[in-house]
Sequence to fold (278 residues):
Amino acid sequence: MPTQTLVEPAPRLPAAAPRRSSWAVMCSVVFALSLRELKTRLDGRWGGAVWVIGEPLLNMLAMLAVYSAMRAQTIGGVDTLLFLVSGQMPYLLFKSLVLRLMEAIESNHGLFAYRQVQPIDAVLARSVVEVLVFAMVAGACIAALGWAGHPVVPHRPLELFAALALMTLIGGALGLFMAVGTAPPLNRLRGLVSMAFLPIYITSGALVPLANLPQGLQGLCLYNPITHLLELLRGAWLGAAYQASPHVGWTLPLAWALGTVLLALGLYRGRSHRLQTG
Fold:
């Protein structure tokens, strides 16, 4: 009888791991960079965390001291403290987004050697950290106001959220635009960008209600989209008690949000390769 040769079956190869989508990779990278940014921002110590929350609070306390010296108990029909918190906090979020995002790409340039890390990931990660810091500070302020007996429940929460979202979008888009536009060798322009925030602050309505300004100055302030958003935000939070200007609306902030996002993404697309390679 012919002998039969036994053939051993070939060993099974391990199944290849499913390839992750580019969106999943981007989310993982942004999450990792956010943790790194948060650790850097807090400086790894309790003192850093206290300073992150205390810095904007000190700014508002300084303004409160000025108004207290002027014996101003109410501003725009509402308590001075409520007026300052509702104006200073969102403005500081906008300013922090633009100025800190402006340096995000250069600060993380060493990480671009990894092909998974893109320059825009660094900007998105820093945006996440800035929003988290704002949420912590705003939560502390609102809790303190509620404990002191002030009304803190917003009258129109959806409108309040929309105003904050638009302010965050405009600030993030401007931050991305400045990060790309002032990348080396143009980084000396960042000083001019910081100086530009003085007129933005003065015309934003964060210090004085728009309705209390002269008509000519009101017309100038209405070119500032942050003025519209702060007035809308105060009206949504404080309700009819706040004497909001009837000249503000959503059109200008929406146009600014759409325009800045398109402009920032277009500039980033044109310079992304140069940003990554240096």
Q: What stands out?
A: The mean pLDDT is 83. The longest strand covers residues 74-75. DSSP finds eleven helices and two strands in the chain. The two ends are 76 Å apart (CA to CA).
